[in-house]
């Protein structure tokens, strides 16, 4: 089984209504439908994350991925957790992959949400701020919902 090692982050900022979280809506392959057969697609929200490049630490990858996928820069507050799962590639070889993703909590420093490169639009449809409170109900992946809960617990205790 193939293995992938990635890193990502929960990037937060404090706003008038409370803590907000930067999330991405990944690009999805458009399904081919006829003009009269339009489908409604549910919004899929996820945390920014990606593969660790050679020579990078997981923390450096988390900061880089946030910048590339959201347009924002943040500083690391803490490592939250590692999540592990398997998936089957939906492209190419259809192989099963064992993946480990290290997640960090980052505090917003600068940048404009969704200010990402044209090249990154292949991966990211858009980036947006959402309230941290209740965010786990909006994220698509169970492991990432657990990461959101850990981020909220950290912020409450610090």
What can you see in these coordinates?
The chain is an alpha+beta fold and 158 residues long. The protein has a single domain (2-28, 42-157), classed as Nucleoside Triphosphate Pyrophosphohydrolase (Alpha-Beta Complex). The protein contains two helices and six strands. The protein has helices at 58-70, 142-157, and strands at residues 2-15, 18-26, 49-51, 72-88, 96-111, 124-131. Strands 1, 2, 3, 4, 5 and 6 form a six-stranded mixed sheet that branches. A hairpin with a 7-residue loop joins strand 4 (72-88) and strand 5. It starts with a strand and ends with a helix.
Largest sheet: 6 strands, mixed
CATH superfamily, called what? Nucleoside Triphosphate Pyrophosphohydrolase
Count of alpha and pi helical runs:
2
Radius of gyration, in Å, reads 16 Å
The percentage of residues in β strands lies in 35-45%
State the shape: globular
Q: Which parts are unreliable, with pLDDT below 50 for 5 consecutive residues or more?
A: 30-39
Distance between the termini: 40 Å
Number of strands: 6
- The CATH architecture term is Alpha-Beta Complex
Could you give a quick summary of the protein structure above?
The protein has 158 residues and is an alpha+beta fold. It has helices spanning 58-70, 142-157, and strands at residues 2-15, 18-26, 49-51, 72-88, 96-111, 124-131.
Summarize the topology:
Layout: E1 2-15, E2 18-26, E3 49-51, H1 58-70, E4 72-88, E5 96-111, E6 124-131, H2 142-157
Parallel strand pairs: 1-5
Antiparallel strand pairs: 1-2, 1-3, 2-6, 4-5
């Amino acid at each position: 089984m193939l293995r992938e090692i990635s890193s990502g982050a929960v990037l937060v900022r404090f706003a008038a209504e409370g803590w907000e979280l930067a999330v991405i809506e990944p690009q999805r392959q458009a399904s081919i439908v006829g003009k009269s057969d339009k489908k409604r697609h549910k919004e899929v929200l996820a945390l920014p994350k990606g593969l660790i490049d050679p020579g990078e630490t997981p923390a450096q990858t988390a900061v880089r991925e946030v910048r590339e996928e959201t347009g924002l820069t943040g500083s690391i507050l803490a490592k939250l957790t590692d999540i592990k799962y398997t998936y089957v590639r939906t492209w190419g070889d259809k192989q099963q992959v064992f993946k480990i993703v290290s997640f960090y909590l980052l505090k917003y420093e600068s940048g404009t949400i969704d200010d990402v490169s044209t090249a990154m639009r292949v991966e990211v449809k858009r980036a947006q701020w959402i309230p941290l409170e209740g965010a786990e109900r909006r994220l698509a992946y169970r492991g990432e919902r657990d990461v959101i809960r850990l981020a909220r617990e950290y912020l409450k205790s610090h």
